[in-house]
Please model this.
Amino acid sequence: MRPILLKGHERSITLVKYNHDGDLLFTASKDHVPSMWRSENGERIGTFNGHKGTIWDLDVCRFSKRVVTASADATSRLWDCETGETLMDFKHHGPVRGVAFAQGSQMFASISDPFVDHNAQISIYDIPEDEDPSTYDDTPRLEIDLPKMPDGKRVNPTNIVWLNLNEALFVTFDNGAVRLYDPVTGDELEEIFPHEKKINRVSFNKDKTLFITSSADFTSKLYDVVDLEHLKTYKTDRPVNDAVISEKKDHILLGGGQEAMSVTTTAGKVGKFETRFFHLVYEEEFGSVKGHFGPINALDINPNGRNYASGAEDGYVRLHFFDKSYLDMKDPVPEEPEDGEEKVADEGAEQ
Model:
Protein backbone atom coordinates (compact mmCIF):
# COMPACT_ATOMS: atom_id res chain seq x y z
CA MET A 1 0.00 0.00 0.00
CA ARG A 2 1.47 3.33 -1.07
CA PRO A 3 1.03 6.14 1.48
CA ILE A 4 1.60 9.85 0.87
CA LEU A 5 2.65 11.76 3.98
CA LEU A 6 0.83 15.10 4.24
CA LYS A 7 3.02 17.43 6.31
CA GLY A 8 0.92 20.54 6.76
CA HIS A 9 0.10 20.71 10.46
CA GLU A 10 2.28 21.56 13.45
CA ARG A 11 0.21 19.80 16.11
CA SER A 12 -1.90 16.67 16.49
CA ILE A 13 -4.65 15.98 13.95
CA THR A 14 -8.27 16.13 15.15
CA LEU A 15 -10.19 15.37 11.94
CA VAL A 16 -9.79 14.20 8.34
CA LYS A 17 -12.76 14.38 5.97
CA TYR A 18 -13.36 13.87 2.25
CA ASN A 19 -15.90 15.97 0.40
CA HIS A 20 -18.95 14.35 -1.21
CA ASP A 21 -17.17 13.70 -4.53
CA GLY A 22 -13.97 12.44 -2.93
CA ASP A 23 -11.62 14.75 -4.89
CA LEU A 24 -10.83 17.00 -1.89
CA LEU A 25 -9.55 16.12 1.57
CA PHE A 26 -10.04 18.47 4.53
CA THR A 27 -7.90 18.19 7.67
CA ALA A 28 -8.12 19.92 11.04
CA SER A 29 -5.68 19.97 13.93
CA LYS A 30 -4.80 21.66 17.21
CA ASP A 31 -2.71 24.27 15.33
CA HIS A 32 -5.79 26.48 14.57
CA VAL A 33 -5.46 26.20 10.75
CA PRO A 34 -7.66 23.77 8.76
CA SER A 35 -6.23 22.70 5.40
CA MET A 36 -7.60 21.50 2.06
CA TRP A 37 -5.74 18.95 -0.10
CA ARG A 38 -6.16 17.26 -3.45
CA SER A 39 -6.90 13.62 -2.64
CA GLU A 40 -5.39 12.14 -5.81
CA ASN A 41 -1.84 13.33 -5.15
CA GLY A 42 -1.72 14.93 -1.68
CA GLU A 43 -1.09 18.45 -2.98
CA ARG A 44 -2.12 21.17 -0.52
CA ILE A 45 -4.56 23.60 -2.16
CA GLY A 46 -4.90 26.08 0.69
CA THR A 47 -5.64 26.87 4.32
CA PHE A 48 -8.43 28.60 6.25
CA ASN A 49 -6.80 31.21 8.52
CA GLY A 50 -8.55 33.05 11.34
CA HIS A 51 -9.30 30.78 14.31
CA LYS A 52 -7.44 31.23 17.59
CA GLY A 53 -7.98 27.77 19.07
CA THR A 54 -7.99 24.06 18.31
CA ILE A 55 -10.26 23.02 15.42
CA TRP A 56 -12.35 20.17 16.77
CA ASP A 57 -14.61 19.60 13.76
CA LEU A 58 -15.47 20.82 10.30
CA ASP A 59 -18.02 20.04 7.61
CA VAL A 60 -18.17 20.78 3.90
CA CYS A 61 -21.39 21.32 1.97
CA ARG A 62 -22.67 18.94 -0.71
CA PHE A 63 -21.11 20.85 -3.64
CA SER A 64 -17.94 21.93 -1.80
CA LYS A 65 -18.82 25.63 -1.98
CA ARG A 66 -18.72 26.39 1.74
CA VAL A 67 -16.99 24.98 4.81
CA VAL A 68 -18.04 25.38 8.45
CA THR A 69 -15.58 24.85 11.31
CA ALA A 70 -15.87 24.31 15.08
CA SER A 71 -13.14 25.74 17.28
CA ALA A 72 -12.08 25.85 20.92
CA ASP A 73 -11.99 29.68 20.64
CA ALA A 74 -15.80 29.53 21.21
CA THR A 75 -16.67 30.34 17.59
CA SER A 76 -17.77 28.46 14.51
CA ARG A 77 -16.92 30.03 11.16
CA LEU A 78 -18.44 29.80 7.72
CA TRP A 79 -15.82 29.89 4.93
CA ASP A 80 -15.82 30.26 1.18
CA CYS A 81 -14.25 27.00 0.02
CA GLU A 82 -12.78 28.52 -3.17
CA THR A 83 -11.14 31.63 -1.70
CA GLY A 84 -10.60 30.61 1.93
CA GLU A 85 -12.27 33.82 3.15
CA THR A 86 -14.42 33.96 6.29
CA LEU A 87 -18.06 34.61 5.34
CA MET A 88 -19.42 34.75 8.88
CA ASP A 89 -18.29 34.29 12.48
CA PHE A 90 -20.78 32.69 14.91
CA LYS A 91 -19.97 33.23 18.60
CA HIS A 92 -20.88 30.61 21.22
CA HIS A 93 -20.86 30.54 25.04
CA GLY A 94 -18.21 27.81 25.22
CA PRO A 95 -15.72 25.86 23.07
CA VAL A 96 -17.45 24.51 19.94
CA ARG A 97 -17.08 20.74 19.74
CA GLY A 98 -18.90 19.84 16.51
CA VAL A 99 -20.64 21.27 13.43
CA ALA A 100 -22.76 19.80 10.65
CA PHE A 101 -24.43 21.16 7.53
CA ALA A 102 -28.10 20.30 7.13
CA GLN A 103 -29.20 18.54 3.96
CA GLY A 104 -29.54 21.28 1.34
CA SER A 105 -26.84 23.37 3.09
CA GLN A 106 -29.29 26.15 4.02
CA MET A 107 -28.54 25.83 7.74
CA PHE A 108 -26.05 24.22 10.08
CA ALA A 109 -26.02 22.95 13.65
CA SER A 110 -23.28 23.16 16.26
CA ILE A 111 -22.59 21.72 19.72
CA SER A 112 -20.69 23.65 22.39
CA ASP A 113 -19.20 22.63 25.73
CA PRO A 114 -20.36 24.06 29.07
CA PHE A 115 -18.44 27.13 30.20
CA VAL A 116 -18.71 28.87 33.59
CA ASP A 117 -22.48 29.38 34.15
CA HIS A 118 -23.54 28.29 30.67
CA ASN A 119 -24.66 24.74 29.99
CA ALA A 120 -23.64 22.76 26.93
CA GLN A 121 -25.82 23.75 23.95
CA ILE A 122 -26.98 22.67 20.55
CA SER A 123 -27.43 25.66 18.21
CA ILE A 124 -29.01 25.90 14.76
CA TYR A 125 -28.14 28.78 12.41
CA ASP A 126 -29.78 29.79 9.12
CA ILE A 127 -27.32 30.40 6.25
CA PRO A 128 -29.33 30.53 2.98
CA GLU A 129 -27.02 30.10 -0.02
CA ASP A 130 -28.86 32.63 -2.20
CA GLU A 131 -28.48 35.48 0.33
CA ASP A 132 -25.51 37.75 1.01
CA PRO A 133 -23.52 36.38 4.01
CA SER A 134 -23.38 39.90 5.50
CA THR A 135 -27.15 39.68 6.05
CA TYR A 136 -26.95 36.43 8.07
CA ASP A 137 -28.08 36.56 11.69
CA ASP A 138 -25.28 35.47 14.03
CA THR A 139 -27.80 34.49 16.73
CA PRO A 140 -29.11 30.92 16.50
CA ARG A 141 -32.60 30.19 15.22
CA LEU A 142 -32.90 27.50 17.89
CA GLU A 143 -30.89 26.79 21.04
CA ILE A 144 -31.29 23.49 22.87
CA ASP A 145 -29.92 23.61 26.41
CA LEU A 146 -28.22 20.46 27.74
CA PRO A 147 -28.51 20.81 31.54
CA LYS A 148 -26.70 18.77 34.17
CA MET A 149 -27.90 15.24 34.94
CA PRO A 150 -30.07 14.71 38.04
CA ASP A 151 -26.95 13.55 39.95
CA GLY A 152 -25.25 16.88 39.20
CA LYS A 153 -22.82 15.59 36.58
CA ARG A 154 -22.29 17.45 33.34
CA VAL A 155 -22.75 15.44 30.15
CA ASN A 156 -20.94 16.95 27.20
CA PRO A 157 -21.88 16.39 23.53
CA THR A 158 -19.11 14.96 21.31
CA ASN A 159 -20.60 14.77 17.78
CA ILE A 160 -23.58 16.10 15.85
CA VAL A 161 -25.09 14.91 12.54
CA TRP A 162 -28.31 15.71 10.66
CA LEU A 163 -30.33 12.64 9.73
CA ASN A 164 -31.94 12.21 6.30
CA LEU A 165 -34.38 14.95 5.21
CA ASN A 166 -33.30 16.93 8.32
CA GLU A 167 -35.85 14.97 10.33
CA ALA A 168 -33.71 14.84 13.47
CA LEU A 169 -30.40 15.91 15.00
CA PHE A 170 -28.24 12.96 16.02
CA VAL A 171 -25.98 13.81 18.99
CA THR A 172 -23.47 11.61 20.83
CA PHE A 173 -22.27 12.23 24.41
CA ASP A 174 -19.30 11.52 26.65
CA ASN A 175 -21.33 9.22 28.91
CA GLY A 176 -21.90 6.75 26.05
CA ALA A 177 -25.37 8.03 25.10
CA VAL A 178 -26.89 8.84 21.71
CA ARG A 179 -29.85 11.22 21.60
CA LEU A 180 -32.13 12.37 18.80
CA TYR A 181 -33.55 15.91 18.91
CA ASP A 182 -36.30 17.55 16.91
CA PRO A 183 -34.63 20.40 14.92
CA VAL A 184 -37.83 22.48 14.91
CA THR A 185 -39.03 22.29 18.52
CA GLY A 186 -35.80 21.17 20.23
CA ASP A 187 -37.57 18.26 21.96
CA GLU A 188 -35.63 15.11 22.79
CA LEU A 189 -37.06 12.30 20.65
CA GLU A 190 -35.08 9.26 21.74
CA GLU A 191 -32.09 8.15 23.82
CA ILE A 192 -30.01 4.97 23.69
CA PHE A 193 -26.80 3.90 25.44
CA PRO A 194 -24.57 1.99 23.00
CA HIS A 195 -21.48 2.40 25.23
CA GLU A 196 -20.50 2.69 28.88
CA LYS A 197 -17.74 5.22 28.21
CA LYS A 198 -17.27 8.29 26.01
CA ILE A 199 -18.27 8.08 22.34
CA ASN A 200 -15.27 9.63 20.58
CA ARG A 201 -16.64 9.71 17.06
CA VAL A 202 -19.59 8.56 15.01
CA SER A 203 -19.70 8.11 11.25
CA PHE A 204 -22.42 7.19 8.79
CA ASN A 205 -22.45 5.45 5.44
CA LYS A 206 -23.28 7.66 2.45
CA ASP A 207 -27.01 6.87 2.49
CA LYS A 208 -27.20 7.43 6.26
CA THR A 209 -28.83 4.04 6.78
CA LEU A 210 -26.04 2.73 9.07
CA PHE A 211 -23.85 4.39 11.66
CA ILE A 212 -20.79 3.22 13.54
CA THR A 213 -19.67 4.52 16.93
CA SER A 214 -16.10 4.61 18.30
CA SER A 215 -15.68 4.51 22.04
CA ALA A 216 -13.10 4.67 24.81
CA ASP A 217 -14.49 1.31 26.06
CA PHE A 218 -12.35 -0.48 23.39
CA THR A 219 -15.32 -1.26 21.12
CA SER A 220 -16.94 0.05 17.98
CA LYS A 221 -20.60 -0.70 17.28
CA LEU A 222 -22.67 -0.76 14.10
CA TYR A 223 -26.30 0.37 14.29
CA ASP A 224 -29.29 0.68 12.00
CA VAL A 225 -30.31 4.36 11.77
CA VAL A 226 -34.07 3.85 11.31
CA ASP A 227 -34.89 1.83 14.43
CA LEU A 228 -31.55 2.30 16.27
CA GLU A 229 -31.08 -1.47 16.34
CA HIS A 230 -27.65 -2.79 17.34
CA LEU A 231 -26.22 -4.94 14.52
CA LYS A 232 -22.52 -5.67 15.12
CA THR A 233 -19.72 -5.10 17.64
CA TYR A 234 -16.02 -4.82 16.76
CA LYS A 235 -13.83 -5.52 19.79
CA THR A 236 -10.24 -4.28 20.18
CA ASP A 237 -7.66 -4.04 22.95
CA ARG A 238 -7.31 -0.25 22.92
CA PRO A 239 -9.51 2.88 22.90
CA VAL A 240 -11.14 3.42 19.49
CA ASN A 241 -10.93 7.05 18.33
CA ASP A 242 -12.55 6.74 14.91
CA ALA A 243 -14.17 4.13 12.68
CA VAL A 244 -15.50 4.38 9.13
CA ILE A 245 -17.65 2.21 6.88
CA SER A 246 -16.29 1.43 3.42
CA GLU A 247 -18.71 2.32 0.61
CA LYS A 248 -17.38 -0.24 -1.88
CA LYS A 249 -16.70 -3.25 0.35
CA ASP A 250 -18.19 -4.82 3.46
CA HIS A 251 -15.27 -3.56 5.52
CA ILE A 252 -14.82 -1.37 8.60
CA LEU A 253 -11.67 0.66 9.30
CA LEU A 254 -10.81 1.30 12.96
CA GLY A 255 -8.20 3.70 14.33
CA GLY A 256 -7.06 4.39 17.87
CA GLY A 257 -4.30 3.53 20.29
CA GLN A 258 -3.46 4.07 23.91
CA GLU A 259 -3.99 7.44 25.56
CA ALA A 260 -1.78 10.19 24.13
CA MET A 261 -0.34 11.11 27.54
CA SER A 262 1.12 7.62 28.11
CA VAL A 263 2.56 7.27 24.59
CA THR A 264 6.05 8.52 25.47
CA THR A 265 6.63 5.59 27.79
CA THR A 266 6.13 2.91 25.13
CA ALA A 267 7.57 1.97 21.75
CA GLY A 268 5.58 2.64 18.58
CA LYS A 269 4.92 -1.07 18.18
CA VAL A 270 3.57 -1.51 21.71
CA GLY A 271 1.28 1.52 21.48
CA LYS A 272 -0.72 -0.20 18.72
CA PHE A 273 -1.11 2.80 16.45
CA GLU A 274 -2.16 0.95 13.30
CA THR A 275 -5.36 1.19 11.28
CA ARG A 276 -7.24 -2.08 11.67
CA PHE A 277 -9.48 -3.62 9.01
CA PHE A 278 -12.54 -5.61 10.11
CA HIS A 279 -15.10 -7.49 8.06
CA LEU A 280 -18.44 -5.69 8.47
CA VAL A 281 -20.54 -8.87 8.67
CA TYR A 282 -18.27 -11.42 10.36
CA GLU A 283 -16.73 -8.95 12.85
CA GLU A 284 -13.29 -10.48 12.19
CA GLU A 285 -10.06 -8.49 11.87
CA PHE A 286 -8.24 -9.42 8.66
CA GLY A 287 -5.50 -6.83 8.33
CA SER A 288 -3.79 -3.71 9.63
CA VAL A 289 -1.72 -0.81 8.28
CA LYS A 290 1.10 0.60 10.40
CA GLY A 291 2.91 3.92 10.03
CA HIS A 292 1.88 6.44 12.69
CA PHE A 293 3.91 7.28 15.78
CA GLY A 294 0.94 8.20 17.96
CA PRO A 295 -2.68 7.20 18.46
CA ILE A 296 -4.84 7.63 15.36
CA ASN A 297 -7.39 10.38 16.08
CA ALA A 298 -9.18 10.55 12.74
CA LEU A 299 -10.00 8.32 9.78
CA ASP A 300 -11.96 8.69 6.58
CA ILE A 301 -12.31 6.60 3.45
CA ASN A 302 -12.79 8.08 -0.01
CA PRO A 303 -16.36 7.63 -1.34
CA ASN A 304 -14.82 5.95 -4.43
CA GLY A 305 -13.21 3.35 -2.15
CA ARG A 306 -9.73 3.75 -3.68
CA ASN A 307 -7.90 5.47 -0.82
CA TYR A 308 -8.25 6.39 2.81
CA ALA A 309 -6.72 9.01 5.08
CA SER A 310 -5.62 8.75 8.70
CA GLY A 311 -4.56 11.55 11.04
CA ALA A 312 -2.76 10.98 14.32
CA GLU A 313 -1.37 12.55 17.46
CA ASP A 314 2.03 12.75 15.69
CA GLY A 315 0.73 15.63 13.50
CA TYR A 316 0.90 13.74 10.21
CA VAL A 317 -1.88 12.82 7.81
CA ARG A 318 -1.20 9.66 5.84
CA LEU A 319 -3.04 9.28 2.54
CA HIS A 320 -3.08 5.56 1.68
CA PHE A 321 -3.86 4.23 -1.80
CA PHE A 322 -5.18 0.68 -1.86
CA ASP A 323 -3.29 -1.91 -3.92
CA LYS A 324 -4.98 -3.62 -6.83
CA SER A 325 -4.94 -6.85 -4.83
CA TYR A 326 -7.16 -5.25 -2.16
CA LEU A 327 -9.51 -3.61 -4.69
CA ASP A 328 -9.92 -6.91 -6.58
CA MET A 329 -10.20 -9.00 -3.42
CA LYS A 330 -13.35 -11.06 -3.09
CA ASP A 331 -14.60 -11.60 0.42
CA PRO A 332 -14.78 -15.31 1.27
CA VAL A 333 -18.26 -16.64 1.90
CA PRO A 334 -18.31 -19.28 4.65
CA GLU A 335 -19.96 -22.39 3.27
CA GLU A 336 -21.61 -25.16 5.19
CA PRO A 337 -19.48 -28.29 4.61
CA GLU A 338 -21.34 -31.30 3.27
CA ASP A 339 -21.54 -34.42 5.41
CA GLY A 340 -18.78 -36.19 3.50
CA GLU A 341 -16.38 -33.22 3.76
CA GLU A 342 -16.94 -32.86 7.46
CA LYS A 343 -16.29 -36.53 7.97
CA VAL A 344 -13.06 -36.41 5.97
CA ALA A 345 -11.87 -33.44 8.03
CA ASP A 346 -12.65 -35.33 11.25
CA GLU A 347 -10.81 -38.39 10.05
CA GLY A 348 -7.80 -36.23 9.15
CA ALA A 349 -7.83 -34.78 12.64
CA GLU A 350 -7.92 -38.23 14.23
CA GLN A 351 -4.90 -39.39 12.18
